[in-house]
Amino acid sequence: FPEVFASESALVITPVALLWLNLVTDGFPALALGADPKSDDVMHRPPRPRDEGVLDRRTVASILGIGVALTATGLGVFFYALSRSGDLVVAQTVLFTFLVTAELVRTQSVRLRYRLSPLSNPWLLGAVGLSLALHLVLLYTPVADLFGVVPLGLTEWGWVAGAFVPFLVANLCLVWLNDRLFAP
Q: Residues near 65 by Cβ (< 8 Å), separated by ≥ 6?
């Protein structure tokens, strides 16, 4: 895999793809999360201690754990796609698509902490659907050239789906572990 590191143009993910990733996975879903119903136990939870910051130990552990899981799985699918296809742009597109879809699916795992049903926020479902639709438009129209990506075939989508298995298992294990380690 020396070609991946041989030049500055051989990035694992391009800057414009990273901007798209942030826009699509953070924009619409974040707005929709504001419409989440309140948790049933919200009035039974004690307030935060005055000296506790916004980023408590549980939140930091969650951010680090998900970051490691997402990075490891993403790099794994990138190098797998690169070895199977022999094409850097295909591997970048597979990684890009994995990251977009993983971040969108992960919005539901955040809600697990508050015991919210995946179907309780139709705005979030619509936002995730819209974000996925926009990503598909990006992949399968001439806009793809502007982003330096290529359309994915069924084989490549299989690689993306295959990467979900270890990521989802790690994600669910991290939610479970955080609940046990940082229970109130």
A: 170, 174, 177, 178
Domain 2-35+55-181 is found in CATH 1.20.1110.10? yes
The C-alpha R_g of the chain, in whole angstroms, comes to 18
Query: Coil, helix or strand for 45?
Result: coil
Give alpha helix (H) positions in the chain: 2-5, 15-22, 28-33, 57-85, 88-112, 122-140, 143-147, 154-181
Handedness of CA 115, 120, 124, 128 (dihedral sign): positive
Tell me how far apart the alpha carbons of residues 170 and 184 are, in angstroms, rounded to a whole number. Answer: 23
* Residue-range domain boundaries for the chain: 2-35+55-181
Cβ atoms of residues 33 and 124 within 8 Å: yes
- Per-residue pLDDT of 76-128, as tens digits, reads 999 999 999 999 999 999 999 999 999 888 887 777 766 777 787 888 889 89
d(CA 178, CA 57): 10
